[in-house]
Amino acid sequence: MSFVPIGMSAVMRLEWRRLRMRPLGWVLAALTLAWLGWNFTLLLGSFLAGQIQRAALPDGPGFTDLVAVPLLGQLAQLAFLVVPLLTMSVLAGERRNGTLPLLFATGVPASGIVLGKYLATLGWLLLWLALTLAMPLLLAHATHLDWGKLAAASLGVALMLAALAALGVACSSFASHPAIAAAAALILALALWSINLGAQLAGINGGAINWLAMSTHEQPMLRGLVSSADVLWFVLLILLSLALATRRLDTERERG
Fold this sequence. Notes:
By secondary structure, the chain is mainly α. It is about 80% helix and about 0% strand.
């Protein structure tokens, strides 16, 4: 009964070690954090420049609305490119290098392999989110933070990162080459985000097509509104993606 979590833990530690050893993860972290830091400086400068005008408004936007949440929104935009690049090799790379049969030979079930690699990747992404959050939090003592709105926006971005990571792992499980996995994950993520664009242009704000869109569930949380329906959407996408990846590995193992 304890073999599955032990095997999953071993795969997770191995994948985490690979993420730390591969230059791609460090390059992505350095470039994106530098870009986010520069934009944080610009947002902060703009906020300070307009502080006197906003003081006359009783309910005007504050530091959270004009600096912290937009910074998280920029991270969410970067995630569409960063997550596919980070997940493209988790399984497609193993398959291309011929090491996937070695993972099967360890006896770790497909679910353990998928979850181990997914959790390691998710850990890297959450660390990326934490380092981004550290920028506005460093000024918490000098400004007024809306902790509820910041928590809601952070939860929304964390769920989006978790969903994109699961989608990337699923694409990597089906692809024969990491580049194909990255391209498929990017296309699917962008399609999920904008699938309701035509409906919105037509003035339709309800219906199934809008419910399917990731933007429908992400944007309210960036505005500070958290609902169980939005959280459930992300959970369902994560479970479906990981289930498809597990099924794919099970089929590949059975075929030898």
